Amino acid sequence: MSGGQPFAPGERVRLLRLEDEFFSGMEMDPEDVTRLKSLVGLTWTVEDFHAEPGTVELVFTHAPGDPSPLDWEWVWVPPEWIERVE
């Protein structure tokens, strides 16, 4: 990690939660919300750390043949919502 960033690009992390505030102000298909919530607890990859507003950009790689991938595969969350995977 450089520059004091809490997470580095390429690092594997577990998404611990998505709180209601994550979805506020977003117009999402209910099926996408359900699918995204189903990815909590799974391993994601850090894409970038954004000092402003202090969020971590994560990307999720779907398994081959996944029957219900999202149209998009990334989220920006506070560092408190993730943990490193050894």
Uncertain runs are none
Order of helices and strands: EHHEEEE
Q: How many strands, what sense, and barrel or not for the largest sheet?
A: 5 strands, antiparallel
Q: Which range does the strand content fall in?
A: 25-35%
Structural class: alpha+beta
In DSSP terms (H or I, runs of 4 or more residues), the helix count works out at 2
* Outline: globular
Q: In what order do the strands lie side by side in the largest sheet?
A: 4-3-2-1-5
Distance between the termini: 16 Å
Overall description:
By secondary structure, the chain is an alpha+beta fold. It has one domain (12-84). Helix content is 15%, strand content 28%. Strands 4-3-2-1-5 form a 5-stranded antiparallel β-sheet, with no helix packed on it. The protein is globular.
